[in-house]
Amino acid sequence: MAQEDVFKKLVSHCKEYGFVFPSSEIYDGLGAVYDYGQMGVELKNNLKKYWWDSMTLLNDNVVGIDSAIFMHPTIWKASGHVDAFNDPLIDNKDSKKRYRADVLIEDYLAKLDEKIDKEVAKAAKRFGESFDEAQFRATNPRVLENQAKRDEVHARFAKDLNDANFEDLRDLIIECEIVCPISGTRNWTDVRQFNLMFSTEMGSTADGAMKVYLRPETAQGIFVNFLNVQKTGRMKIPFGIAQIGKAFRNEIVARQFIFRMREFEQMEMQFFVRPGEELDWFAKWKQARLNWHKALGLGDQKYRYHDHDKLAHYANAATDIEFEMPFGFKEVEGIHSRTDFDLSQHEKFSGKKMQYFDPELNKSYTPYVIETSIGVDRLFLSVLAGSYCEETLENGETRVVLKLPAQVAPVKLAVMPLVKKDGLPEKANEIINDLKFDFRCQYDEKDSIGKRYRRQDAIGTPFCITVDHDTLNDNCVTIRFRDTMLQERVPISKLHDIISEKVNMKSLFKKISE
């Protein structure tokens, strides 16, 4: 099945089963804004808990805060967002559609990568076990031609971004014959910049109102509270401050479902270190964050690093962790070495000292910062995309199943009486009343047992418990495992231990720590 079709099915599945709804749908919706349904909010909260606990429990030098969405407007002047928080945009004159110029070129580069990979895959199939991929990539004329073209475009693209050379960026789009997906033409406008911040006014009267911004990132709330946390928590460098919160960006080219939205949620951790040690810490956090993602078990091959072509002016290293979405490898988390830019800027604009006295070195300095930043919504989408499966069973039937990591699944178990009589519903509710304090449970008695299994498969429930007439005599139930569909007869008294072993986040934390 084409990946585009998979993505459409995933979007439809999210709505049908209560994961994600278009916001304000009864009023025809609001562009690039979505609501999380009853299943989605549980999955999202579980992912946030996985991140929060891994940060604050596994690292004794990382603590959390929750800063306000509204902040003093000078903060955004100091951070550079007022003057430099822009996207390079380009319009197609025929379709009247607007695009990010950098995304158009990145998509073009991805197509060249795809061509190369297809050549390699064909050769691997043709030569079998004797295939030498490295030699093929180094000698095959078609691969070399596409690789040379890719390298040339990539080098020029990176230079244009770093130099803010928007005229050449447009020329590159024309020369690569990149067309508008809607009109199919290359009738492009000039590339120009657009500031992404939402602004509003704070104050009781029009004359006394102050212009403020909805925060475009959560990081600045951490930086302005650096000394508050350090002093009240008696924190010693190196240490980190973590935060989960909403951020807002007026994305002109919002697309791909919840991947790029105007209101979104971030999980960020700023790690403060001694100057000169930042690149060592950058390498450590880069590896630690990749381990965190891989522990979810969606497939190690679905992740890769992507080093930034264009470094922010304040950074000396930056890498994305990308996940293979149905529409290609895309960023889910960024790791950045931000130097001392943020604290120095806030010291300059506020007039307050933002330095740390290091008792071991017996001197004060402005700490350097390593940032890890995840988009919660992108993580949510990656987990759903990595879990979505359509399977053909031995009897010819098909099933749609979300093979979600059991630890983050919205519902951990469903309890089903075989029939709605003979005391079976009462026994099923008795089991739920015993387990509901530790696990989110569902009771389901409608339709055949097969249809009930399919419903639970579709929302990713790891365990289904069937109560039958024998249960009333032997106090045993049938537990059915989602991924394998295997069924096992077990005593009710052992249910808690069986489920707890699989859904407890300790198992994920142990994988990270290995």
Description:
One of its GO terms (molecular function) is glycine-tRNA ligase activity. InterPro entries: aa-tRNA-synt_IIb (IPR002314), aa-tRNA-synth_II (IPR006195), aa-tRNA-synth_II/BPL/LPL (IPR045864), Anticodon-bd (IPR004154), Anticodon-bd_dom_sf (IPR036621), Gly-tRNA_synthase/POLG2 (IPR027031), Gly_tRNA_ligase_bac (IPR022961), GlyRS-like_core (IPR033731). One of its GO terms (cellular component) is microvesicle. The protein is of the alpha+beta class and 514 residues long. It folds into three domains: 205 residues, Bira Bifunctional Protein, Domain 2 (BirA Bifunctional Protein, domain 2), CATH 3.30.930.10; 104 residues, no CATH class; 121 residues, 3-Layer(aba) Sandwich (Rossmann fold), CATH 3.40.50. Helix content is 40%, strand content 24%. It has a seven-stranded mixed beta sheet. It is globular, with a radius of gyration of 26 Å. It starts with a helix and ends with a helix. The model has no long low-confidence stretch (mean pLDDT 92).
